[in-house]
Structures are given as C-alpha cells and as structure tokens.
Amino acid sequence: MLSLHSAVHRADRGARAPRIGLAVAGGGPIGGMYELGALRALDDAFEGRDLHRLDCYVGVSSGAFLAAGLANRMDTAEMCRIFITGDSDDVQFRPETFMQPAFAEYASRLARAPRLVSEWWREVLFAPDASRWPGSMARIGSLMPTGLFDNRAIERFLRDVFTRRGRSNDFRKLDAPLYVVAVDLDSGEAVRFGEPGWDNVPISTAVQASAALPGLYPPVKLRGRHFVDGALRRTMHASVALEHGVDLLIGLNPLVPFNGGRGKRMGGERTLLSGGLPAVLSQTFRTLLQSRMQVGLARYAQQYPDIDQLVFEPNAEDGELFFANAFSFTARRRICEIAYRNTMADLRHRRVALAPVLAAHGITLRDDIINDSKRSILDGIAPPTRDTDATARLRRALDEVEHRIASTK
Hints:
Elements: E1 2-5, E2 20-24, H1 28-45, E3 46-47, E4 56-60, H2 62-71, H3 76-85, H4 103-110, H5 113-126, H6 129-142, H7 152-161, E5 178-184, E6 190-193, H8 203-210, E7 220-222, E8 225-229, H9 238-243, E9 248-252, H10 276-303, E10 308-312, H11 319-323, H12 329-349, H13 351-359, E11 364-365, H14 367-370, H15 389-408
Parallel strand pairs: 2-4, 2-9, 4-5, 9-10
Antiparallel strand pairs: 1-10, 3-11, 5-6, 5-8, 7-8
C-alpha cells in the first residue's frame, strides 16, 4: 500500500541536484525482512538513483540496520545475499545468535531476591494488611528480567560488519548523514544518534539501543542513561529527514494491523483470538503505531508542503505477515518475496501519479521491471564476488571514483 503526498509547490533548486532521504521504521525481524524486500523492489524499479547513494538516512529499531547498511554503501543485492540466500562471501548471518538468553540480566535480577524476600517478611509481620500486598507485588515484578534475549550479540555482529571492507562504524565518516533513533527510558526523550553530541557513539551501539524492544531485549546503558526501541516515541521518525532539507522522502513502515475481516484467515479457521495474548498485543501495537503515523504524515504534508513524500506499507489483508515465524529461514525468504511483489504492484498501479513525482527528482521507473508480474526478488542478484577484504576495498574505491565521474558529467 503506497501513500503519496505530492508537494504543493516544489522549491526552486537551481543547479542543485535533488536531495532524497530514506526513513525506515522498525517492526522486529519480520518487519525488517519486509522492508528488505520492499527496498530491493525499489532498487530494481528505480532508474537514476541507487538507494545506497541517497542524501540522508533515518533508521528505527530493525530498520536501523538496513539504513546503516545503505549509508555504508551496502546495496540491497548484498543484503539479500546475507539474509535470504545465505551465500554472501562477506557476512554470515545466523538468527540463533540473536536468541541467546540474557543470562547476565537474569543473574542481576535474581541477586536481588534475598533482600526483597527479607523486606517482604518484614512487611508480612509488621505492615498493615491493606498496604502489604501492593508492595509485595511490586517487589515480585522487580525480579522479572527486562529482556529475554541478550542484545550484546547484535552489537558484536554489527560492529564486525561495519569495520570491514571499507565500511565504517563511525557516523562522522559516512558519506551521507545517518540518524538512528532510540528513546531514553527514564525521560521518554527521543535521541538521534548521529547528531552532534551523539555522533561519536558507534553505529553498532546506536542500532543495538534503537532495537532494544522492551520485553525482548534489555535496555542499553550508555552515558549513564538507558535506551530502548525508538518506535516507542514515533513510528518512523520521518521528521528527522524532512528537517534535513530533503526534496523527496521515501518511507517504509512494515507494521500495519491485520484485517482478518476482509483478508484470508490463516490456517482455515485461524483468527487473531486463536493466537492468544501475543496476537492480541501485536494487533493492538500495530493499530496504535499506524494510527499515530497516519496523523504524523498528514501533519508533515501541511508542515512541509514543498517536499514529496512516499510511504510504502504492507497490505492489511496479508495474514502471512502477521502469523509468520520470525526466526524461520523459509519465512524470511517468503516475507521478502511478498514485500517485493507488493511494492512492485504498488509501483505498477500508481505509475501514472507516481512517475511525474519521481521524474522531478531525477528518477524514472523501469517499465519492463514493474510490468513483469512474475519477477522474483532473487532475479537480478548476481552470485557473490568472492572478494578478499583488500579487493573489496579496491572495488569499493573504484566504484566511488566511477560514480563521482558520472555525477560531474
């Protein structure tokens, strides 16, 4: 589903090239895979601009890794080799790495148990009945871990990816601005890693903090503050790119509520209620996030009337996205394929309205690509190059020189 807000009047850029920004929302593992499929579709369909050569990137939660990868000149084909085909000669991705129990968190909580038990017994013996139980329940709650899995593995994985083959783990060394958004747990303040004052935080740590979904991963402690998932404040944080002075904003949001009334039910008679509490909470969370984002986009259209805005989302009837196993290899590939085909269909169906908007920013649509309804996400992805680190750096440098020469013509 494509939301298109065309600029009321476009600013006169003169000889300046159009500035294009990308905002990628969060959505957990499934959301990240949907966004990868959508990004691959846009990369295939667009002529005139590569997604890994845009002017500004904003990433939240799982979308932060994709934004950081693109800002590091990792193209969508390489990301597909990493997360879908698994034949990358550069990065080896293993989902189980991110599912290791947070034993350190468990231990720190259990270490409090003796003291809390002692306080509880004192209340049992001396406190009035009316005030005993609420305090007891609060103490029991403080023993529960703040996250099931250890997110330090995420930081180690990203640090390894962004410190090889000419990439950088330093915001300040990127060719285009990158902003990764997290939320301060104690104040509710949104912090933009990559801005002055926060640009010396490693990108890998910033993504770890932005993806610290409460309940799944513990908060990330940094400079005496505790950071959690950036989506808790805003869904996509598109305003960060809009404030950066872009002429075209491309946004991706994978979290939309499932419409079981109009779409196909999963597994014959399967409904949201049959999924129990996790399904109910997921639907509630998705509904709140999308509603908040729609209000924000309507406000941005009025606040930034000279900026074109495109936001791609899944179809509400895609029940497979809602019920998919987030850590299944088959599910990852299937979700990416659904996203790829959905995005291509959006481009095909909205071509008449979309083409002039993109043309204003130097982008044309490849009709042979978007009109091929049988095209797969894996079409056009060349086999890995089998580079060494040295040859990969040389290839990257030569590509950059070629790009600079082409841009001056």
